Amino acid sequence: MSSRVNNNPFERRQVMKVNQEKSRPLPPWMSRMRAQWVEETVSETVKADNCLFGVIIGPGGSTIKELQVKYNIRVLVPRKGSKDEPITVQGKDKTLVKNAVLRIKALIAEEKERRRVTTPVSQTLCIPKALHGKVIGLQGQNIRPITQALKIKIQFPNKNDNSDEVTLTGLPD
After folding, report:
1. pTM score, two decimals?
2. Are residues 132 and 156 in contact, defined by beta-carbon separation less than 8 angstroms?
3. In which residue ranges is the amino acid composition biased (Basic and acidic residues) (predicted)?
4. Which CATH number does the domain housing residue 143 bear?
């Protein structure tokens, strides 16, 4: 077995430069700025389900950018797939951070309500198989006005099925 030796001086120099750049200390002015930011920063967290992070980010990041500019803060949203990590809001002004947190909570509440109202729910009723025909009526004349007025779907079991379960599906309101 022979070990491969890199005889090209240019490649060796490039590797050394990359290693040197990684280990170079920060300039003093940058360290001071960083320390000042850490000292003066107010930080608050907001708990939200991972599926709601998109509401805070917005299409193309527009909502999060708007929040950051309007309130002069930073919003740190956990990466996709991270579990139980809160959204962090950081800024120098405590009132602006609080206002941003309130706005984020409002966005989350609005989205939860929108999903609650627009997500269909199902309910199963037991109606004896012998009465299914009477409930439906001739060519659906009994059931059609109900489904149209309430904007629901009613699913009866197949004729060959002996089940008595009838499923009603519609919006919660």
Report:
1. 0.59
2. yes
3. 10-24
4. 3.30.1370.10
